[in-house]
Structures are given as C-alpha cells and as structure tokens.
Request: fold
Amino acid sequence: MIRILKPGFYASVQDAGRVGYLSDGVGRCGAMDALALKVGNAAVGNPDTAAALEFTFGGFEVEATRDIEICIGGAPIQAKIDGKPIHRWWAQTFHKGQRLSVGPCASGMRSYLCVAGGIDVPTVLGSKSTDLKGGFGGLSGRLLKAGDVLDVGPARKGREMRPKGLSPREFPDLFRDFTACPTLLFIPAREWEDLDAANQRKFLDEEWVISPDSNRVGYRLNGVQISPKVHKEMLSHGILPGTIQLPPSGQPVVQMKDANTAGGYPKLGKVIEADMSVLAQVPIGKSIRFAPCSIDEAKIALRTQNAHSDRVRKIMNGLRNIA
Amino acid sequence: MTTPALHVSHLGEEAVLFQCDGPLMRETQARFWALEQHCHDLEMVQACVLGVHSLLLCLGPDATDDAVCDHVSRLWETLTPLEPSDTVVEIPVRYNGEDLADLAHAEGLTPAEVVRIHTATEYIVFALGSQPGFPYLGGLDERLHCPRRASPRVRVEAGSVAIGGGQTGIISRTSPSGWHILGHTEIELFDENRKQPSLLSARDRVRFVAREGAA
Reply:
C-alpha cells in the first residue's frame, strides 16, 4: 500500500480512461499524459491500462507501507527515496517505511507514480480513473489528500525486482524538457473553413499562452483574437479530448481528458492523439503553436509512438537490460 | 418531408461527425435515433455518441473513413426514423428556483404561468450528454425561451431544473451554469452503481410535475 503524505497541487488516480459511456454524458478521463502512463506501466510489468497516481507540478511525498516496485515517469523532477536521488523511468523497489519525496517540476507538469500491480481502487463503469465531475472512480471520486492510503494490486508473478531503466540516450523523447514552445499537429475540423485566410494565418502564427484557469477539463489559450467569418449558433454534438474550440471570446480552448462529452462551440480542429501527451506536459504560462496535418500523418505518428512504448516494454521485460 | 442534408466532417484521426443544421426538429432527431441504432452494429465503429441533430462515430484505428462515410450516407437516405419510446418519466419539481421570478418578468408572465406552461408539455429526450445523465430535451414552449444569463453562476446544484435558450433540462451534477433555474428535483439522473446508470435514455418522454413545499 501507499500512503499519501503530501499530495501536491492536484493528485488523482488515473488509468487509460473510461470508454463506452460517452453517450451517457460520462467523459473519458484517464492519464493526461497517456504515453507516460503506458511507459511507466511497461517499466513495472503492468498492462498498459493499469491505474497509477497522477501528480501535478511535482511537490509530493508518499510512503510505502509494504515493499513495492515503482517507476516514476512524466515531467522532469528531482525524486528521492529517503533522501537518496532516484531516476525517472527507472523501476526499483520502494521498501516498506521508506519515503519518496519529489520536488517541483523543472519543466513539464505531470508526474506518474506507477506501481507493479497497479493502484487498486474499485472499477467504476469499466475504469479506475477519477471522474471529478461525475464524483466517482479513483478514490471516492475525489482528489487525493494527505493521509489517504491506496491499495496496490498483485504484481505479475516471476518478476525480478532488480533496478533497471531507460536511458536518455536511447529514448531522448522521454527525457525532453518542456521549456521550448512545442508545435502541436492538429486535424482541421468543420468550422476551420469558417475562418478566412487571415484568421487561419493568425491561428497558425500565434504562440498561444496556456492560461492559469486551465485544468484537466480544458486548456484555455490566450493570444491574438480569432474571428470567424460568420458567428454560428450550434447545436450540441459529441466532442472528444483534443478538440480545439473557438468560443465567442475569440480565444481557443483545447478540451483535455476530463472534457465534456458534448459541446456547441465552433471547432477549429483536433490535436492529434500522439501530441496530446506533449500538450499534457506544457505548463501553465508557457506557450504552444499549432500546425495542420492530414489524417494519415496523424495515424502514422500514433503508430510510431505505440511502437516506441512497445519497445520500452520489451526492454523492461528483461529481454535486454540496459541498466 | 424531404430528407434533411447530412453534413460529414472529421473530428481528429479516429472520429467522424454527422450533423444536420438547425432549426431544431423532432423529425430530424428521429432520423439520428435510427442512424445511431444502425451504427451500433457496425464492426468498424467503436463508439457512437448521439448529439442534438448529430452523431459522432469513433472508429477503430484500422477503419477506413471513406467506407464508413459512404455507408452512413446511404443509411441516412434509406432509414426509417424512430418514434419516441413509450417510456414516460415524471420528474417531480419544487418550482422555487432563484430565477423563476426574473424569468417570468422577462417573459411578461407570472411565476404561476411559467410553471403552468413548463408542466403542460411532454418533452422528448433528444440525447444525453455534457454531464453524466444530462438530457437535452426537445419541446420547450416558445414563450419560455430565454437567452442564457450574461454571466454564468459558478455553482448550480445538481437537481436544478432550468432553462437555457430554447432548451430545458435538469442539471445532473453540481457545476457552473448559465441557465435560469426554475426549481429543484430530488430525482437522481445518474447513479454509477445502477445497472443502467442514466435514469433517462434518448427517445424517452419526460413530464415535469409541480410539487408543493420548500426545497
């Protein structure tokens, strides 16, 4: 089991998300940085979809109440077990009574604590992810607080508990910092054509700043005013995480994992799946840019990313030990 | 009635959105109810998200969008629209909402008249969405149409029965909202522990029934 000593700014249980209930108005939720969850789970021998703890901005502390195997992934952070520094993307034993303390994120925004066996909370509507809006999933449908104790599921049998991990040389993408302004690829959506060439240009040229009132539901972007040729009254239709909406304010909003399942604002596009993990790590106050791409390019990017995490799994399963 | 034009667009690499533009019509929604039922059975479709005059299809990574779009466009021309279901759900409401008097004033009605009009109609659940179990209801009397509040309330309690624009609904989860609150109900629209978590389904008929007493 794991005891939360300091949850930091915003901590919750998240897995790969809830599917199949969009038609009931229940969002997907799940790890904001899905790639980090996948790689972290691979590192400790879990299935891709096992639940982990998602922390925001670092600054958290937890205690092991029995020996468990863990891996910290996600944003660049300084992590220590009982004062001794540990590496990111590194599977190791966290002994009973030890304390893991993590400093603020150097860049990036979200860290994942993956545990062999996964965080064991009840499965609600097919997922262990916390749905704050719904008030279910995770630990009683709420954020984690100091004193919470989380069960850990049974780890896969026959795993050797020898420390091993990934190197920045071999996986530079996993060790990138998020200080530079990333360009996110998006697939234009229906109302992209409602922008004239000048407004499309403005959208693509702008370095959009992520506003402080951004959260797991959506990222509000601040920058130049974008005005469609016509203002449409729209009926509510299904939307997905990654959808870039343009409210009447002229300042875009990108829907994130806790997105509403329906919306009526004009849609400029949708950030490609493969880039959602990057967006999840861009801190508030930093900026992003957008570039359009084709559906084929998006599918190739996702396949490449999946191949990447499959390779991590192979390495960490002990086929090859790069420690 | 001629078949309304179906607009097809992509929402990212794995979803296609089929829409008809307004004005809101039950006949158009009835075609989407039928379309959704057909699409549920398609192998290439992972999820169907019914909206108002719309259907979002999430496709598997190997699905070919063109094949799905062609198939759905053909279905749209040939399908038989579905009728509202026989299920009638009564929602008991205490009409003591904080905006009832203001809304009545804005419409040139008395609060009692607003309640009478609101309870006189049988509404149809067009779709669920936005919040767990939240119904988009069709059928609001035009005399009660009212633009949303200029500044949304930061916190509206679950169970609030409200009007926003030309729609009425029941807020299912305490949340910010710009809708005008007419009253409150204790009915649970969504319970994740129920076998059928949502109380309402698309095509259900809904009636609001005025109950006495303070909330």
In short: DSSP finds four helices and 21 strands in chain A. Chain A has two domains: 2-177, 183-292. Confidence is low (pLDDT under 50) at residues 319-323 of chain A.
